[in-house]
Amino acid sequence: MAHENDKAVARHSLFMQSLPDQHIEPILSHAVFRSYDRGETLFLQGEPCGGVHVVLDGWVKLYRIAPNGSEAVVNVFTRGESFGEAVAFRRRDYPVSAEASTACRTMMIPAEDLLQLIRRDPEACVSMIASTFAHLHSLVEQLEQLKAETGAQRVAQFLLTLCDAEDGACRVTLPYDKVLIAGRLGMKPESLSRAFSRLKPAGVKISRNHAEIADVDQLRDYVEADPADAWSRA
User: Fold this and answer.
1) Are 52 and 10 in contact (CB under 8 A)?
2) Fewest CB within a 10 Å sphere: which of 67, 117, 175, 190?
3) d(CA 185, CA 199)
4) Cα–Cα dist 141/148, whole Å
5) What is the extent of the structural domain holding 159?
6) How many CB atoms sit inside 10 A of residue 93's CB?
7) DSSP strand E in the chain: where?
8) Helix (H, G, I), strand (E, B), or coil: what is residue 34?
9) In angstroms, what CA-CA distances link 222 with 125, 141, 163, 187, 231?
10) Which of 96-105, 111-120, 150-159, 160-169 has the highest mean predicted lDDT (pLDDT)?
11) CATH number at residue 199
12) Are 194 and 169 part of one and the same domain?
């Protein structure tokens, strides 16, 4: 039963939701299900790519180690999100490492199964390309945030992605430690602390691993404001 629930999550992932129905079950029947403790490695940069990964529960970070030994967080994925498509299709080595940011469960679809499907069905190929494009679009959005938004605006946008309410007050749980949040947003930990302080006038109060948002619309307005105005309020 657990695997059936996990398969339901995978079916609704960006990677699989556009696949023709007749391919879903055959693909899932070859999937590999794994559980990881927090801090455990899924794979390392430079290892051969095994396939496409779908997060079933918890959080997984992708990161690279720079020549000076510092860690650069590339992205963080959670339930229903996938990664590794482009590398799997090209049978290349992983360009990043993956680590469990929290206890998590994942499903891996072997690369060879996907390549065989692409060779048989052009429609499936188009669906997978669409998923890869969506990841590229997400990276472009992250780059735009780094260039066009203040640190406090990036933090506010991150909090909005965690909200389950469209308006009014909302309380969210920070999904992983603040050092990782800072890395994900292209900031240093001390800059993240300052950004949290700058969000107080926008109705945000941080208490340990929770954020109390007084008004979602007010916070959204803060994100959409001209960065020059945001800096003047900092």
Assistant:
1) no
2) 67
3) 15
4) 10
5) 149-233
6) 13
7) 32-36, 41-43, 51-57, 59-65, 71-78, 82-83, 97-100, 104-110, 170-173, 204-207, 210-213
8) strand
9) 40, 18, 15, 19, 11
10) 96-105
11) 1.10.10.10
12) yes
28, 140: one domain? yes
Residues 124 and 173 in one domain: no
Q: What is the mean pLDDT of residues 16-31?
A: 82
Tokens of 121: 């069905």
pTM over 0.85: no
Range with lowest mean pLDDT among 28-42, 103-117, 173-187? 173-187
Per-residue model confidence as pLDDT tens digits over 27-60: 888 889 999 999 999 999 999 999 999 999 999 9
3-state SS assignment for residue 165:
coil
Strand partners, 64: 72
Other C-beta atoms closer than 10 Å to the C-beta of 19 total 20
In which residue are the tokens 């001390």 written? 190
CATH code of the domain covering residue 19 = 2.60.120.10
